[in-house]
Amino acid sequence: MSPNPLIQRLPRHLKLGELRVFVAVLEHCSFRKAAAALHLTQPAVTKAIASLEETLGFRLFDRIANGVELTVHGAAFAPRATAVFDELRRAAQELTLIDRGATGTLRVGIVPMPAIPFLPVALGRLADEHPGILATVVEAREAELLDRLRKRDIEVAILRMALVDPPEDLRVDRLFDERLCVVARREHPLAGRSGLDWAELLRQRWVMPPADCYFFEHVQRTLDRLGLPMPAHTVEAFSINIQFGMVLHAGLLSFGMRSQVSFAPGKDFIVRLNVDLPVDGTQVAAVSLKSHEPGPLARLLVAQIRELASAPPAPPPGVRQPRLPLRADS
């Protein structure tokens, strides 16, 4: 097969300055606005685009009434050009960090609170084993994290998969299955007791999330499958910090996820009650791009989370081991 002449021509003739002008025109949909953003004259922008089009052998923009729009060739070229500058930006960031003494960098995405409590513990272990690394945690909703993965702004996202339907271009590596449990403060009269029945729990005071949030719906679905009624609650609060605060300071019961109780701040003062809610939990997974293997630090972080999930720490002294299974594969 004869070599593609464009493939041979591009490395020799493509100029980063012209690519930068193309990206600016792409962002502003206007030669004039791109010139202003780059502090260039409009003729200079026009000349740069013309030179780039000559190198490629295709027209990239069509003029319209209020600016320019991409041609079919321009639309095909645009994501590649943008990716080049994204890679250069990341390279500049990493070189700057290394110059400041960092021995490695990691960018991981996670949803806002209630986030996966395993992450801070795993990051702490990673920092102990690899002094000098710099880890950046990006908090965003699921859809934004998937978009950041595609832009390679983060290497891996740790997500509960109930609200995520990853497309074919993303890799999903299962970490563990979350489990729903009932939590109380360590001094609660029901803490450590065996043989609890649901009717006794319904007579207690509860703090619950609002009915329109995902966690409330998850609790409701779980109890429905088990044929158990929802408890009436005394306090309604969206924040996991306020919910656990009511458990700790007001003696209320609450629902929680296994990882929150095992690893959340204040875990030494909160216990899981001996009541089984044996319904499959929500899968937690590490999501990454299939086309780009996560770096060594990202892979080590995922391994740390998987190890933590498979062997959570023992409960505080004097507190009986809850009957809910602790292993990720239970």
Secondary structure layout:
Layout: H1 5-13, H2 16-28, H3 31-38, H4 42-56, E1 61-64, E2 67-70, H5 72-99, E3 104-110, H6 118-129, E4 133-139, H7 142-150, E5 156-160, E6 170-177, E7 180-185, H8 198-202, E8 207-208, H9 214-226, E9 235-236, H10 240-250, E10 254-257, H11 258-263, E11 270-272, E12 283-289, H12 296-310
Parallel strand pairs: 3-4, 3-5, 8-9
Antiparallel strand pairs: 1-2, 5-12, 6-12, 7-10, 7-11
Helix pairs in contact: 2-3, 2-4, 2-5, 3-4, 6-12
Outline the structure in words.
The protein contains twelve helices and twelve strands. By secondary structure, the protein is of the alpha/beta class. The protein folds into three domains: 88 residues, Winged helix-like DNA-binding domain superfamily/Winged helix DNA-binding domain (Arc Repressor Mutant, subunit A, Orthogonal Bundle), CATH 1.10.10; 106 residues, Periplasmic binding protein-like II (D-Maltodextrin-Binding Protein, domain 2, 3-Layer(aba) Sandwich), CATH 3.40.190; 93 residues, 3-Layer(aba) Sandwich (D-Maltodextrin-Binding Protein, domain 2). The strands form four sheets. The protein has a five-stranded mixed beta sheet with strand order 4-3-5-12-6, sandwiched between helices. Strands 10-7-11 form a three-stranded antiparallel beta sheet. A hairpin with a 2-residue loop joins strand 1 and strand 2. Helix 2 crosses helix 5. The radius of gyration is 27 Å and the shape is elongated.
